[in-house]
Amino acid sequence: MRSNTTARIARRRSFRVAAAVLTAAAALTLTACNGDEKAAGQADTAPAGSSSPSGSSGGAQDSDAKDTEGGGSAHAGVERCHTQDLEAAFATGEDALPVPEESAGGATTATIVLMNKGTSSCRIGGFPGVDLTSINGGERWSLARSSQKWSPIEVEAGQSTEFTLNLAFTKEEEGFYQPAWVEITPPNETKSLKIEWPWETDSLVDQRSATRPATFVNPIG
After folding, report:
1. What contacts 112, CB < 8 A, 6 or more positions away?
2. Cα–Cα distance for residue pair 30/101, rounded to 1 Å
3. CA-to-CA distance for 132 and 142, rounded, in angstroms?
4. Which pTM value belongs to this model?
5. Which residues, other chains included, contact 16 with Cβ-Cβ below 8 Å and sequence gap of 6+?
6. Which one, of 72, 67, 31, lies nearest residue 158 by Cα?
7. Phi and psi of 19, rounded to 5°?
8. Closest to 141 in 3D by CA, of 192, 216, 194, 87
9. According to the 3-state scheme, what is the secondary structure of the chain?
10. I want to staple 179 with a disulfide (CB 3.0 to 4.6 A). Which of 39, 43, 132, 133 is the partner?
11. pLDDT tens digits for the chain (221 residues)?
């Protein structure tokens, strides 16, 4: 009985994420047309980006620029995706809001969709820099990255790709971090995309100083 229940939860989660990606992609397309894990749920690597005076998360640092994780030569001649040609949005469809599982200690995932709003295909892959900014004084949190493997992918003009954030939510009144904004620096870029944190009432466990935080970023591609 327990395994059947787990399977149903997994299927519902898969459907929510799939619907969320389609919803976010559709929203980004409309905007463009109007003109302009580690298995235990923990990260075990250095931050994907670091703060800088200009406000960039520094996501270009150590972002696997050489496409070493799986055949960059397959995309020879295709230029990498630049920040100015991308648009970002959380997947927040009706059935896609992150639902912390009590059995997982409040852990869940959220999907961020990146749309190529340029006029030609571009290549992207690796870890974006992701910096959260809090509501209480703008304290920044540069998310660590997972140990997941990745391969570069080609995104056609008007099409989208995505990556996920592992999040550790909490209902405690102490030791929490409430994001207000998310800054995303695409791999090998220095300029960031800034989007609003969509869950005003959902706080994260404050693990900014943790060596293996449960809130972290997974790769694109």
Report:
1. 88, 89, 90, 91, 162, 163, 164, 165, 182, 184, 195
2. 33
3. 6
4. 0.69
5. 93, 95, 96, 99
6. 31
7. -65, -35
8. 216
9. CHHHHHHHHHHHHHHHHHHHHHHHHHHHHHHHHCCCCCCCCCCCCCECCCCCCCCCCCCCCCCCCCCCCCCHHHHCCCCECCHHHEEEEECCCCCCCCCCEHHHCCEEEEEEEEEECCCCCEEECECCEEEEEECCCCCEEECEECCCCCCCEEECCCCEEEEEEEEEEECCCCCEECEEEEEEECCCCCCCEEEECCCCCCEEECCCCCCCCCCEECCEC
10. 132
11. 433 433 333 334 443 444 444 445 444 544 444 444 343 445 654 444 433 333 334 443 444 444 444 444 556 689 999 999 999 999 876 655 566 555 456 788 999 999 999 999 999 999 999 999 998 778 999 999 999 999 999 999 999 999 999 999 998 888 999 999 999 999 999 999 999 998 887 899 999 999 999 999 999 97
- What length does the chain have? 221
Reading the block at residue 191, the tokens are: 């300029």
- Residue 144 backbone dihedrals phi, psi, to 5 degrees: -70, 170
């949190």: which residue's tokens?
141
CA distances from 170 to 44, 49, 63, 196, 200 (A): 21, 24, 30, 19, 13
